[in-house]
# Entry
Amino acid sequence: MLVIYLYRLKRTYTYTYTYTYTYTENMPVHTRKNLNNAKSLLEQSQAILVVTGAGMSVDSGVPTYRGSGGIWTRSIQVGDECYSYDEISSLKMWKTNPHLAWGFKASFYHTMNTLEPHEGYSILLNAVQNKGEYFICTSNVDGYFERAGFDTSRIYEVHGTIQKNQCTDKRCNIRNGVTDAVIPDIDPDTLLAKKLPVCSFCGNMTRPNVSMFGDYEFFEEPAKHQRKRLNVWLDKVNREQKQLVIIEIGCGVNRHSLRMSNGKMMSGEENAVA
Ligand SMILES: [Zn+2]
# Structure
């Protein structure tokens, strides 16, 4: 099932079209009609904002969090201990057992980095490049849009990215910013990180520049900077009275932190999880 929400902005009004498509050989007439409507909206558009959630990377083999079989719903066995996903991914775990926190994340990140952005990314890239004006807003931390060739100055990664590390010292982050990610090797039996990566500036441990559960130490500056670019872009599109179409892909059918309202981001980022 693919759920696409299309928003068409006209002056201050937002027309919202919500289509749920189930691809079958015998597609119902109304579904075909909706698909044609969506196609025509896309053809008429002069700017495209693509909003994606975990569902976007499922076809690459990356599991979702909340979806059926999603990693959020499973418990994680490490030796004799059993952890919930939010427990093992919490800031508290990074502080009390960084070898386990890094080990769990590293096993996941190594998988993401081994997998490839699926064909849908290149199809989408062609479509938005042909349009000229586009922006990507994603809650995914896998860095697949960049890897698929999208312009990095047109990407807003709301929850950060596994491609960058930050220092565990806040002051060091402010001084030096984020660095290219170093992801530690792990012991497959214990799931513990073999060697914790350290900051080249101050020697403290580095961690992913990704928002965790209860993560008041997430260094938000890079994401804030990207969001500022998105807002500048939206203002320009509005000023030039371009027909903007917003495509939402893989954000699920439930309330989502990225859901748009009247063309503006709803402020759900404080609930960020990754
Ligand atoms: Zn540092």
Notes: The first helix runs from residue 29 to 44.
